[in-house]
């Protein structure tokens, strides 16, 4: 049986007379990818912060495996745009940055060409990859991604969601991610927890996508085929095309 890394029991949190989290329990094991899904304001980011120990609950408990290495990609990270800062410089600010690791993750996420570029001149998709690189610097055992595809076009979203199980396999880590679109993450996740303050339903993505509680929140969406193909080259950021090892991207 896989080792349990995080366990939350009966979490309840109120803010300004509103119940943001209502009696939520969940468990996360090594190697598992768990996706939190739900409408705006349903408590996804709050739950993530509670699981990470960044917010306190009114009732309930969170247990994390002692010494767990965590990589966190927050939903928002505001940088002062008067601060001159390159991507490499930004990553070097992380206390986990070790020589070679920054280059390794920039290369792995296909953004090596951005190392000397100003962080203020990145596209939404590039910035998300830089934030992901930052979360990977300490080779986390638990990777937490709060809306990792924000500001990314649909093709970029599919690529990022393909990357997440690969990273899980490479690092052997567990992943918790927040998403708005079940159909886009279906292939990349083992378990879905559908939130609306409380847990509306949870389970394998195929089960959740037909659960009446999920359908009453999101309606019946046209099923999106998850298209994959083998590709023998990569399109680099500077525009040139490069053959790839193993023949797939
Ligand atoms: N400190 C706070 N004080 C008051 N209300 C708060 C506080 N933190 C969160 N909330 C409220 O709790 C609810 C859940 O917020 P949260 O950011 O967790 O939602 P979310 O599901 O991540 O939303 P989104 O999909 O829009 O990012 C919202 O209605 C928010 O306004």
The tally of structural domains comes to: 1
Major sheet summary line: 6 strands, mixed
What is the number of helical segments per DSSP (H or I, 4+ residues)? 8
* SSE topology string: EEEHEEHHHEHEHEEHHEE
The low-pLDDT segments are 223-230, 245-249
**What topology, given as strand order, has the largest sheet?**
5-6-7-3-8-9
Reported by name, the CATH topology is Rossmann fold
Distance between the first and last residues' Cα: 31 Å
Pfam family, one: ABC_tran
Keywords: ATP-binding, Cell inner membrane, Cell membrane, Ion transport, Membrane, Nucleotide-binding, Translocase, Transport, Zinc, Zinc transport
Organism: Bacterioplanes sanyensis
Protein name: Zinc ABC transporter ATP-binding protein ZnuC
Describe the structure.
It comes from Bacterioplanes sanyensis. This is Zinc ABC transporter ATP-binding protein ZnuC. Keywords: ATP-binding, Cell inner membrane, Cell membrane, Ion transport, Membrane, Nucleotide-binding, Translocase, Transport, Zinc, Zinc transport. By secondary structure, this protein is α/β, with parallel strands linked by helices. The protein has a single domain (33-48, 68-247), classed as 3-Layer(aba) Sandwich (Rossmann fold), CATH 3.40.50.300. Helix content is 28%, strand content 27%. The protein is built from 8 helices and 11 strands. It has helices at residues 44-52, 87-92, 101-108, 124-136, 154-171, 182-185, 205-208, 212-218, and strands at 4-15, 18-29, 33-37, 59-64, 70-73, 142-146, 174-179, 191-196, 198-203, 233-235, 241-243. The strands form 3 sheets. The chain has a 6-stranded mixed beta sheet with strand order 5-6-7-3-8-9, sandwiched between helices. A hairpin with a 2-residue loop joins strand 1 and strand 2 (18-29). The longest helix is centred in the middle third of the chain and has 18 residues, at 154-171. It is globular and about 50 Å long. Adenosine-5'-triphosphate (ATP) binds at residues 15-16, 20, 38, 40-46. Adenosine-5'-triphosphate binds next to helix 1.
């Amino acid at each position: 049986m896989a080792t349990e890394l995080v366990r939350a029991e009966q979490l309840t949190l109120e803010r300004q007379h509103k119940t943001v989290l209502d009696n939520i329990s969940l468990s996360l094991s090594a190697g598992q990818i768990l996706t939190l899904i739900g409408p705006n304001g349903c408590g996804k980011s709050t739950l993530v912060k509670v699981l990470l120990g960044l917010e306190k609950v009114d009732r309930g408990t969170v247990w994390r495996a002692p010494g767990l290495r965590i990589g966190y990609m927050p939903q928002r990270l505001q940088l002062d745009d008067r601060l001159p800062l390159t991507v490499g410089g930004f990553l070097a600010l992380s206390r986990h940055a070790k020589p070679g690791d920054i280059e390794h993750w920039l290369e792995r996420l296909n953004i090596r060409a951005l190392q000397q570029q100003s962080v203020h001149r990145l596209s939404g998709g590039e910035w998300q990859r830089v934030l992901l690189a930052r979360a990977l610097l300490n080779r986390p055992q638990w990777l937490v991604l709060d809306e990792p595809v924000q500001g990314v076009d649909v093709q970029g979203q599919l690529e990022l969601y393909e990357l997440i199980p690969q990273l899980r396999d490479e690092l052997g880590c567990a992943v918790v991610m927040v998403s708005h679109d079940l159909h886009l993450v279906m292939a990349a996740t083992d378990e879905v927890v559908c939130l609306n303050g409380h847990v509306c339903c949870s389970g394998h993505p195929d089960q959740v996508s037909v659960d009446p509680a999920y359908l009453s929140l999101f309606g019946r969406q046209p099923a999106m085929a998850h298209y994959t193909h083998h590709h023998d080259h990569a399109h680099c950021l500077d525009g040139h095309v490069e053959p790839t090892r193993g023949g797939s991207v």
